[in-house]
Design a protein that fits this description.
By secondary structure, the protein is an alpha/beta fold. The chain has 4 domains: 119 residues, no CATH class; 67 residues, no CATH class; 46 residues, no CATH class; 178 residues, Uracil-DNA Glycosylase, subunit E (3-Layer(aba) Sandwich). Helices cover 42% and strands 12% of the residues. The chain is built from 17 helices and 14 strands. It has a 5-stranded mixed beta sheet with strand order 3-4-5-6-7, covered by helices on one side. A 5-stranded mixed beta sheet has the order 9-8-12-14-13, with helices on both faces. A two-stranded parallel ribbon has the order 1-2. Strand 4, helix 5 and strand 5 form a beta-alpha-beta unit. Helix 3 packs across helix 4.
């Protein structure tokens, strides 16, 4: 029996060199065993392999080498023997890897698929938590991959999160990124990673807001998010409760009164709709303005939207908050800020001491601009021309509501208020006194939700909450606080 000692579970190079020599010397698979760790008998145990003859060679296809590298990362203890059996047969069957009906080939291919799937799940389910701030800020994640895919997958995170210091800890090893170099270290324990951070509640709020009980398919969900990963996902704490409540929530949706007919079809049938408000007529109140908005044809966005989404709130409010445009849920319901971004806004307003029913909420653009992908309608940012066309409505809203302070969320809202494009990063966080009321620029909640960099998301979320607290403090200092 020939024994090959490998330096580690994924030591492909040592396996390859030993397997090549063994095959050239004619050592059959039944007479070889591969073990991890150094033994007292050296690399090949008690029957050393003679040196390879210089006039003999053995080559295999790149397809086999690539397959073997993947299989090596599988947790099956028999993977070394399986690969050597394939290598043994390849000299006489050079096209063996193409025979997918072969038992050994099929098993190896299945292992490689499992490894690839584990790498994909790692990209999807790693959750970083913040530790330290400023120069000491470090993002740490604990993950338990189904197979040994840390070194295979870590370069993805180095590319995706190149501007943050992070570590991914696993039972197999650890990966560390210091903004320049990716390094690997010894195995870790779950206790070595932080258990929670400030962004976690924010992430759970967003996750819960995207759940649609009527579309729940538990088996499909668990196929994409296996229960084995739940223990390390912060949002997993919500899943059982959402599933349990799904039936009741679905029944409520089914039993709810039917909504008003979709106004979009009336718009399509009538190419020209009389407007109660024209450029020459000043609306006397918000009801007249909103009624006229149904016939707006200032830009083409009305053609693909369900309905215009008017502002909501007191007809005279000390605070007006302006967003970019309605989203998918707002377009259907005709109410601003009821989707995921609205949930983030509600949470930040609550923390700042601002009650929603005391604030006038509206958007710079009144129709939902989107692109269709499959069954989804995905947000598409309005152009400068579209914002400028819709500014006529926003100007009348401001004149009728007469707010003391306007909070413009995002660059589109800022352009709708100011009439020109500005940088939110450069101007946010300070209140500017203006003849038509004070102005405060801040981030849009959707920016916080959609930004791919978790470091930027948490920074923007903190700045957003601070800005709303600044708005509340300003109103308190100038008169009765909103409540």
């Amino acid at each position: 029996m020939r024994t090959v000692h490998l330096a580690g579970e994924t030591d492909f190079d040592s396996w390859r060199d030993a397997a090549r020599n063994l095959r050239l010397e004619g050592v059959e698979p039944a007479r070889v065993r591969f073990v991890v760790g150094n033994g007292r008998d050296g690399l090949f145990g008690d029957e050393p392999i003679p040196p390879r003859s210089s006039n003999r060679s053995f080559t295999v296809s790149k397809a086999f080498v690539d397959l073997a590298r993947e299989v090596m990362l599988h947790r099956d203890a028999d993977r070394y023997d399986l690969l050597y059996r394939l290598l043994w047969r390849l000299q006489d069957e050079p096209n063996l890897i193409k025979v997918t009906s072969d038992r050994d080939v099929a098993r190896a291919v299945e292992m490689a698929k499992n490894v690839s799937r584990a790498s994909h799940k790692m990209k999807a389910f790693v959750r970083f938590r913040q530790q330290g701030e400023g120069d000491n800020e470090h993002w740490i994640a604990w993950f338990e991959p189904a197979h040994r895919v840390l070194e295979k997958t870590a370069p993805f995170f180095a590319r995706r999160y190149a501007n943050m210091r992070w570590s991914i800890l696993t039972p197999d090893g650890a990966a560390h990124w210091d903004l320049k170099t990716l390094t690997f270290g010894p195995p870790a324990r779950k206790e070595d990673a932080p258990q929670e951070d400030e962004i976690e509640d924010f992430w759970k709020t967003y996750y819960a807001s995207t759940f649609n009980p009527a579309r729940l398919r538990s088996k499909a969900m668990q196929a994409e998010m296996p229960k084995s990963y739940w223990k390390n996902l912060p949002e997993a704490d919500l899943i059982a409760g959402m599933i349990a409540d799904a039936t009741g929530r679905t029944e409520q949706m089914v039993n709810a009164p039917a909504p008003e007919p979709n106004r979009r079809f009336d718009q399509v049938k009538a190419a020209v709709v009389d407007r109660a408000v024209t450029d020459d007529v000043v609306p006397e109140n918000l009801d007249d303005l909103n009624a006229a908005l149904a016939g707006c044809r200032r830009c083409p966005l009305w053609r693909d939207a369900t309905q215009p989404v008017c502002g909501r709130g007191p007809k005279r409010s000390r605070l007006m908050i302006v967003g970019e445009q309605p989203g998918d849920q707002e377009d259907i319901a005709g109410t601003p800020f009821i989707g995921p971004a609205g949930k983030v806004l509600d949470k930040a307003m609550l923390e700042a001491g601002l009650e929603r029913d005391t604030v006038y909420l509206t958007n710079a653009v009144k129709h939902f601009k989107h692109t269709v992908r499959g069954r989804q309608r995905l947000h598409k940012s309005p152009s400068a021309a579209e914002i400028d066309h819709c500014r006529w409505w926003l100007d009348h809203e401001r004149a009728l509501v007469q707010p003391e302070l306007i909070v413009a969320m995002g660059a589109s809202a800022a352009r709708g208020i100011l009439g020109h494009t500005v940088s939110v990063n450069d101007l946010r966080g300070r209140i500017e006194e203006r003849p038509q009321g004070a102005l405060l620029l801040t981030y849009h909640p959707a920016y916080i939700l959609r930004h791919p960099d978790p470091n930027e998301r948490i920074r923007a979320q903190k700045a957003f909450s601070t800005d709303l607290s600044l708005a509340a403090a300003y109103l308190k200092s100038t008169g009765k606080v909103l409540s």
